[in-house]
Amino acid sequence: MCIGLPMQIKEVGPGYALCEGMGTTRQVETLLIGDQPIGTWVLVFLESAREILSEENAIKIGNAVKAVDIVMNNNGNISTDGMETQNIEALFADLIDREIPKPTSLIALEQSQLKDNGD
Fold first, then answer.
1. Cβ-count burial of 8 within 10 angstroms (0-12 exposed, 13-18 middle, 19+ buried)?
2. pTM of the predicted model, to two decimals?
3. In the beta sheet, which residues pair with residue 53?
4. In whole angstroms, what separates CA 40 from the centre of its chain?
5. Which of 13, 65, 76, 110 is most buried by a 10 A CB count?
6. Is residue 8 domain-resident?
């Protein structure tokens, strides 16, 4: 499985960038995103930057990768004393207590049904 890692560009060269993130430094190709300035956040798959990220999205993705790492290193056991569960919830703070928006197709279907019922 290939997981994208959020990394920040620290140095640039023609067609590549030296990036840091998730506790590692890598030289990655930038052919798919073009040359980017130092400080830009990118999503890296297999030593290739595939997407430009906002800092906010880089943090969210990094937190999700950390959550997967916690689960994988505990053999799928998320909680032995409750601490791991709290850590995972903290890594998904942007999703906790959030109302999930309905897809536009479902909203359109509901509106169509209301019209058909004369409401």
1. middle
2. 0.68
3. 41
4. 15
5. 65
6. yes
